[in-house]
Write a structure and sequence with these properties.
Elements (H helix, E strand, L loop, with lengths): L3 H14 L21 E4 L2 E4 L1 H16 L21 H9 L12 H15 L1 H7 L4 E7 L6 E7 L2 E3 L1
Antiparallel strand pairs: 1-2, 3-4, 4-5
């Protein structure tokens, strides 16, 4: 468990990475939309290459088929908030004793995991690490449905 000082330190560090010109800005040199392998600029707007579009379609298909029993009742439960706001706890309370297979969860972390798996598979993550954009230490990569644990660094400062 992190102490309050450690949490504050990480918050300050991540905030510094997200400021104007920082490496986590959408226009940063290593931002996904600036990767020429994945995106082209048309009239200044990023447009995915055909290969990247296919990957996006494959990821969506994988997500859709991961739960074929979703009810089609045109209802949704939408939760949003910063980390630690209680989304997971609320989710657990809402679905306690209910059939979760009748719902499709739209979780950004699932899509991030799929994108990371694709970047590991096609070598892009290693290429970026070689250019100094990020440092990646693979600790564990489990099968479908498992966690993909990475440590990463920007400007040689590791963060887990």
């Amino acid at each position: 468990m992190l102490t309050s000082a450690e949490i504050d330190s990480r918050r300050i560090y991540l905030t510094s990475l997200s400021t104007g010109g920082g490496p986590l800005q959408p226009d940063a040199p290593h931002a996904t939309v600036n990767n020429r392998r994945w995106f082209r600029r048309i009239d200044g707007a990023p447009v995915p290459t055909s290969a990247r579009r296919r990957l996006h379609e494959q990821i969506l298909a994988r997500w859709r088929t991961s739960n074929p029993y979703v009810a089609r009742e045109r209802s949704a439960i939408v939760m949003a908030g910063p980390p630690g706001a209680g989304k997971s706890s609320t989710h657990d309370q809402l679905f306690r004793g209910r059939d979760q297979h009748r719902w499709r969860e739209l979780d950004a972390d699932v899509f991030k995991r799929y994108l990371l798996e694709a970047a590991l598979a096609d070598g892009t993550l290693d290429e970026d690490a070689g250019r100094g954009a990020i440092h990646v230490e693979r600790r564990e990569r489990s099968a479908e449905g498992g966690d993909l644990l990475l440590t990463w660094a920007v400007d040689s400062t590791p963060v887990e």
